[in-house]
Amino acid sequence: TLLIVLFFLLLASVYSNELRGWKFIAIFAAWQFVQFLMTIGIAHDAAHNCYTQDRKTNRRIMFLFDFLGINSEHWIQNHVHSHHAVPNVPELDSAIESFSLVRLHPHTKSTWIHRYQHYYMILIYSLVTIFQIYFLEFISFANNLVGFHHEDGKNRSAIVWLLINKLWVLSYTLIVPLWILGNPRMEIIGAWILGHLICGVALGIIFQTTHLHESTSFVELNSDGKLSDPFSIHILKTTSEFSVNNPIVTWIAGGLNLHITHHLFPNITQMHLPALSKIVRQTAREFDLPYQSYSFFGALLSHLRCLKKLGSLPSHPSLKSA
Fold this sequence. Notes:
This protein is mainly alpha-helical. It contains 14 helices and 2 strands.
């Protein structure tokens, strides 16, 4: 409720046509950041059917994804059915599927530029929300990538819907402000870009630092096409948590800083994750199981060191002919 109230208050401030300069830029960027918080704080729980106990209500709440520019069906396939099923498994986990500029798994092909990815990855993350909202779904749909398998006969209507959705979001966040507000155009465009840059970095840090860190394990399916470890052990080996005792970070991250707990209990709302995280930590220690947690900056530094290591590793022998 608080996020929705903030959304409309900031929306009214942006469209009031009374803000200029740094005040306008700050309010506009804050408005976009609240939209980001709505996706991970409300729509994300609804995608896991845990925002409410009613599946139909959760499905209606997921319309927030579409309202904010992310196709809800694509999110379910990409995040719930792909990433949560096999985290850190190449060609199956969409979260580590990447383009040639970055390398997120040692069993993917290495190129010279990857040696520097720990320097430019934050810049890559800053562009994530622009890419995800306006390009990713078209690319995924066109290439039938992991997490977006379309059905024959539905291609045209799906593309039309994607176009309408993107035009809608671009209209109320950029085109209409440019049309009706008296602010200089570059001020509006700059505020729009800044908001996306902030949201992109936040999204990248929340989702990527918890799977790509110095202690993470990188696995492939065994000869039977199954995980070598029980699923709960696989999660402990491939995932981490950060700022576990910081309620402010937990609220901003929608509980996703408690990422091990979220993967073990994906159908539990973020409200209960802090208490569950303590139980997970205690249980892991009792049974001498791997459990990794960091401070916020510790998680970021460990992530960058992991990227540096991934960038320096040679290509897997099976990929040298690729």
